[in-house]
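Researcher: Quick test of sequence recovery. Tokens follow.
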């Protein structure tokens, strides 16, 4: 199992999650108070240590961001506007992200330019029922790959094309 630690240093709590990259699943999570009164790294070390211990993992690479002071800049690209794009937007907002762009449907060149101008930290690519239409999410993943955005793309769509689209986005 290949795992990484994803951590968020917030203004009140520091959260850490251990993610299984091979299985695409959350293995464990933990939080600790953010220690701004001493050293913010104390809270980070505590949260990461607790998450790793809970996962039964000795060590893993860390990816750390901070939502204290504006939050993660999230762009959402949905399959269609009324359900998937709005669901992705709401998920981002409820997680504390700063949603800077929302698009839906097949991305055009102008859509990619608008997304790039929004300067997201992460793109959330959502939509497509498992076993259903895969053309829109495939088109959008291909467009994003060709755009060579220097941000991670999180794929939360049709699981039937997950491996194919992972390869496209890699």
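Model:
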């Amino acid at each position: 199992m290949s795992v990484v630690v994803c951590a968020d240093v917030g203004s009140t709590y520091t959260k850490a999650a251990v993610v299984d990259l091979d299985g695409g699943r959350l293995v464990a999570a933990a939080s600790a108070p953010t220690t701004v009164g001493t050293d913010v790294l104390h809270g980070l070390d505590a949260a990461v240590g607790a998450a790793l211990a809970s996962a039964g993992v000795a060590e893993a690479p860390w990816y750390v961001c901070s939502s204290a002071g504006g939050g993660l800049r999230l762009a959402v690209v949905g399959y269609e506007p009324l359900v998937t794009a709005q669901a992705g937007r709401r998920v981002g907002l409820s997680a504390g992200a700063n949603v800077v762009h929302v698009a839906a449907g097949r991305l055009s060149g102008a859509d990619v330019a608008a997304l790039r101008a929004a300067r997201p930290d992460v793109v959330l690519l959502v939509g497509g029922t498992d076993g259903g239409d895969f053309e829109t999410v495939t088109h959008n993943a291909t467009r994003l790959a060709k755009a060579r955005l220097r941000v991670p793309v999180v794929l939360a769509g049709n699981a039937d094309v997950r491996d194919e689209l992972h390869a496209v986005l890699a």
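Strands lie at 3-9, 13-20, 25-33, 62-66, 73-78, 98-104, 122-127, 153-157.
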